[in-house]
Amino acid sequence: MTGFFGAGKRFFALFVLFFVLSLRGFASPLVMVSSGVDTLEDLRFIMREAGLSFTSLTPPFSRDEVLLMLENVDEAALSAPAQEARRRIGDALDPRLLYRDGTLGLDAHAKLTLEGRLRSNTDLPWIGDGTAADASMPAAVPAFSLPLSFYFADVLQIYFEPALGVDPFFHENDGRHWTANVPWEAQRFDLNMPFRTFAALGGPWWNFQIGRDKLSFGSGRTGNLAISDTPDYYDFARVSLFSSAFKYSFLAVQLPLDSGGDNFFASGYGPLDDDELKSTTNRYLYLHRLDFRFFKKLSLGLSEGIMVGNSPVELRYLNPLMVFHSFFAWNDYPHWTAKNGYEGDMAGSLFSLDIEWAILPSLALYGQLVMNEFNTSYEQENFPDKLPPNGMGYLGGIEYSRSIGPWSAIFYGEVLYTDPYLYMLSSPFASFISMRRLSDVGSKDSRRFQWIGHPLGRDVLLFALGADLRGGKLRFRGELSAAIHGEHDIHWDWEKSPDAVGQRSPSGKAETRYTALLEAQWQVFSLLRLSASAGGILALDADHELGKQEYGGELTLKAAFIY
Questions:
Q1: What is the pTM (predicted TM-score) of this model?
Q2: Terminal-to-terminal C-alpha distance of the chain
Q3: What is the pLDDT of residues 10-26, one digit of tens each?
């Protein structure tokens, strides 16, 4: 034990030394730019107009990383809307602090948001915010929040955002024609608050973040295949090292899972008996990613990860240079057994490839591939009865941005294909899903399962077209999509058979869902923003029943006051 504590003291001393050497004068605070904020849209428009690819589109970004991306942008050549976007980015990266004394800074904001939603058909899901392709509505915008940021010199930010919001159960499952984000009953209060709270360290070539926040890896508009901001939040530790042409990222996410009950299992599946594992907090996703940029036009990203279903944090997975496949980790943990007789592994792997090409100023192509399992022709010929089903996914998109008078405009088209068994592996614990608790509502299921990857998940073929226009105090966003959903959903129904190996999307009796969404925003003045959105869904062969048709409309009104 003496040697262990001695090594710990030396490690701590080196960390303190590294931290002290990183200190600079308190010129500007370390600000983290998270997934889903308007600053990223401004950055995306500028990079596209300048004809540059991203070295890595993997937020959260630190202030230094955003500034490094903008180094190669010729600001004098930018259009007036792009220059306005650059000004907004500067304001976000260098906020006016409420208090500042030496190396200490403090900032606080009060946010009051009132939101109401109305729909005509309760048999259809709510349309998600921001994209018509969402399969379920994300957690409601908190009615009130108080973001607090503490800064130390230029290298440390501690962020905490207490919030008062409504539990998602009351949006998705209460069968109402209307909903609002104000928790007027005690049981409606979302006890998972806060959704964002973290500590971040950073410098000109590195940053480290630990806590709770949103994550998204890739250029996808409707979502990303490996790591997407589908879940309401992630609890994680992340470190990034970056330059103008290279970035290394390592991510460790804790993902507790309770698989008990029937709602997570298809008919005939589930734990064998009470002795089988049903829940754990020792479930971790470890992932590392390498990003490269060539000639400032072409970017390539490689990700590899492993989901370890029931084990404390292990040092071997924290090795930043190890190839996860070399561990043969599925042999190191007891098998999990399902009622249908299958024995499942407690570890599953993930690989992804991202590419982005800025063909011309304003025009870019991007694509993604993700893989959980791939059977070679040799395996299919020699082990036909022992093969797990393939788990592959593909996403491709084109994005065009330009200035139209005083407006900045981004237009995009996207196609998605996912295999029936993508993200689902031979046990629930090795599958690439997240879970969070909902309010205790008696006999109702108090868990919310979401994909870590694309929000539509597996067994889907999607086509989407969208636009985002912003000018002065106005902004308009819209999307049209057509999604063909097979019979496989987030329920665990994994099987090992030749039929499963050869299965393609969409499976069984597919449901075709056409969705449209249009949103308008008005920044009345600096403290007040009003917005309204209207959308509609047409579902053919709804609920996978041949000939069944469902359709409905939805209206959302929102007022946001930020001080």
A1: 0.91
A2: 52
A3: 544 545 545 554 555 56
